[in-house]
């Protein structure tokens, strides 16, 4: 098969998560696992904003083990600083592997501009 074929290129995705629904959180993480089964080198970024930030808060998530495993596999988790400020959440309330970005919308636009597929799983 030709190595320049689109099917041979690394899968890249940015996932928007802005819901407080814990079942949706579990489903998003399961979809990430499914993608990594298909392409273990996939580049995946999860952008958390609004109440979705609770997924990556040490004191509010029920999925810390799953998040840690995914972070160790290279999945990036980012949090919107605007949402942190609005909800008065300290940055140190998040897991250490979470990156803070100025705004979720800006991060989503940059990721799409850089060629990542945009997904909002609900």
TrEMBL record:
Output the Pfam families linked to this UniProt entry.
Answer: DsrE
Q: Look up the coiled coil feature and give its residue ranges.
A: none
Q: Which InterPro entries match?
A: DsrEFH-like, Sulphur_relay_DsrE/F-like
The protein, known as:
DsrE/DsrF-like family protein
What is the protein's species of origin? Ferrimicrobium acidiphilum DSM 19497
């Amino acid at each position: 098969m030709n190595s320049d074929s689109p099917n041979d290129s690394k899968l890249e995705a940015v996932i928007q998560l802005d819901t407080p629904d814990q079942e949706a959180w579990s489903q998003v993480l399961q979809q990430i696992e499914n993608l990594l089964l298909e392409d273990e080198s996939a580049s995946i970024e999860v952008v958390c904003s609004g109440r979705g930030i609770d997924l990556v808060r040490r004191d509010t998530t029920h999925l810390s083990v799953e998040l840690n495993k995914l972070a160790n596999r290279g999945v990036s988790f980012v949090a919107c600083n605007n949402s942190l400020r609005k909800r008065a959440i300290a940055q140190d309330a998040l897991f250490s592997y979470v990156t803070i970005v100025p705004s979720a919308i800006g991060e989503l636009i940059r990721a799409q501009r850089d060629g990542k597929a945009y997904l909002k799983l609900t």
